[in-house]
Amino acid sequence: MQPIDLKPSAQGKVRDIFDMGSELLIVATDRISAFDVVLPDPIPYKGEVLTKISLFWFDLLGDVVPNHLISADECDLPDALADHASSLRGRFMLVKKAQVFPVECIVRGYLAGSGWKEYQASGTVCGQKLPDGLVESSRLPEPIFTPSTKAAIGDHDENISFEQMVEIVGGEQAGRLRDISIALYSAARDHAASRGIIIADTKFEFGLVDGEITLIDEVLTPDSSRFWPAEEYVPGSGQQSYDKQFVRDWLEASGWDKTPPAPALPEDVIVMTAEKYVEAFETITGMPFSPEGD
Q1: In this structure, which CATH number among 3.30.470.20, 3.50.50.60, 1.10.10.60, 2.40.40.10 belongs to the domain 100-242?
Q2: Is the pLDDT of residue 294 over 80?
């Protein structure tokens, strides 16, 4: 991806956001983060994969909750960015501005990651008591909602209780965000299952647009979710993954202490991670991935 000679009005770990007046332009770069740290090496085509998967889910889940998408057609690019069409092609979304809720809405359907570590210690996940006898990667009896704070770059997200979320966004909105998140996860889980994919967990972000709760940012991508191949699923250990767990595993084994700066990724890790992202897109959508941008 060629750099854009306009300064983003905001920059996340992966996305650059340009304020276009009444709308926002969100550009998914090829940056990758792990353990809340941006890594020094980009992953080829990652931004396009994230954007195209999000577009797929926005369309599929549009009857569950409205989303912020206006257009992903380069013909609708603002004039100020027309010269960058070839670089932006396939990796941008023109979206409505939203009053963003300062929480991440996480839904877990399986016992993995930090949830598994907590369960081993206390029998809970984010303070919620779970049945005894579960093993790593167990399917939970029902999906559970485990919100977290939204961390700045370099900081770590912090799991919070539902009661703490109520204090932040209010009881009515907290309840609606929880219910919408579980409904989105359930619908996506069912589609993914038909494609041979298990969605172990995912996170959603929401805002208010004209007073209505609206799904924003990315949705159900390899960056925000754990995707497992169903045919290889065996509870009792970690699972093969379509997401960036491959990068996390390499970093864990590298001895890195998870504080910036992160180590450079080997070329084979970069290539294999790019292949995993593309495979996730093709498996979930049933469509071939064809890079569009420079």
Answers
A1: 3.30.470.20
A2: no
